[in-house]
Predict the structure.
Amino acid sequence: MTQGELAAALGITTRSVQNYEAGKSIPYRHLRRIELLTHTPPGWLLAGGTRGPGALTDLAAVRDTLEKQMLLIRSQLEVLTEHMEHLREQQRIAAASRNGRRRR
C-alpha cells in the first residue's frame, strides 16, 4: 500500500502519513484503522514498525512510547494552563478598567 493510498483510505493527507512514518506525530485517532488496512498487529506502528521477537517487546515499546507522549502532553497542558491564567488576568484587568471609566 502506498502512502497516497493509505492517506486516501484514512481521509488524511499524504504528508500526515509521512509524518507518521517519520515518527513526527502519532496517529492515535487512526491506529486501529491503519492496523486493519496494513494487516499489522496492534501496537506495531507505535513500536517503530519493527517485527521483533515477541509481543512483550512490542508491548514494552508501546508503553515507552505512550509514556513519552504522556510527558509531552502534560508539559503542553501546563503551558496551556499558564496561558489561560494569563488571559483570565488580562480579562479581569480589562473589565476593571472598563468599570472604572464608566464610573467617571
User: Anything to note?
Assistant: The chain has one domain: 3-103. The chain has a mean pLDDT of 84. DSSP finds four helices and no strands in the chain.
